[in-house]
What we know:
Radius of gyration: 20 Å
Largest sheet: 8 strands, mixed
Shape: globular
Strand order of the largest sheet: 7-8-9-10-14-13-12-11
Number of strands: 26
Order of helices and strands: HEEEEEEEEEEEEEEEEEEEEEEHEEEE
Strand content: 35-45%
Amino acid sequence: MKYPQSNLTYILSLFIIVSMLLSCAKVRETPTLVDEDHAMVVADEISNHHVKAFGEDAYGHMWIATFRGLNKYDGNKYYQYFCTDDSLGLPDNNVTGVARDRDGCIWVSTVNGVCRYTKKNTFERIAMDDFNRNIVQLIVTPDNRIMIYNVGCLLEYDAGKNRFVKRLDHLDRHHHFMGRVLVGHQGDLWIQNFSSLRHYKGAKLNRVDSVALPKGFYPVYSYLQDDNRIWLCSANGIMIYNVQSGSFESVPDVIAKHPVFCHDQVNSMLVYNKTGLLLSTSQNGMFYYDARTGTVTGQGKAGFPFDVPDFKVTNH
Length: 316
């Protein structure tokens, strides 16, 4: 997903909007099929409540990727898009990502390939140089490079060839089928898997660093904070890699010794109020870490900064 210039304000605003969309009770109505050829449906409700990603187009419409279909919300109705028998629909109904590039194009990734939205209200499926079409991440970098990641390799869109070409390969040699790409403000990349952190820079994505992770520590989620710290989260704890010093640093005691973080998986993080972090866990909801006061507050407790909507946040 593309990270806008006002990253925190944008993400939090969309988070609140999506919270409202998913939690508000609405009267169910029979959807109206308005485009039989391209399987677009107009409805009062979202096509599926398992949201994978969301973005915003140049007109202020929200695009929401879900487990079943892509939704465009115009403030009144949901325009739902699905996979079709021809090549003008989505490659698959399980949509994993949606992002807008600098030129205003909407890109969509699925478990069976990637496409972009056209002015004809259809989708153009884009070829890719890899047999694994299950896209885990769709990325638009700050310098407007469009990339897709399927754990095994990283591909970049080549406008001249109109296809995604391989930039990095053999990224999952041990077949863990788990990994994540972190994008810095200058467009450099960190790729995390179960065994290592690798740092890539430049137009050719040259590898400039590789950090081995401790044996027995298997991070499922990672988060790059302010281009300086990489938080690595596993089911049995958290580690922090300091990018500037090139070494691991101590996790704040209030987090390291917290009874929840010792055994529950942190699966999403977000900077909040400059000095704080929001952490979402698999089993125990959300927590707010205030670095200034050195405190951790669970959702629903005094001091938590907002009311949490009635659904689980698993990633961003």
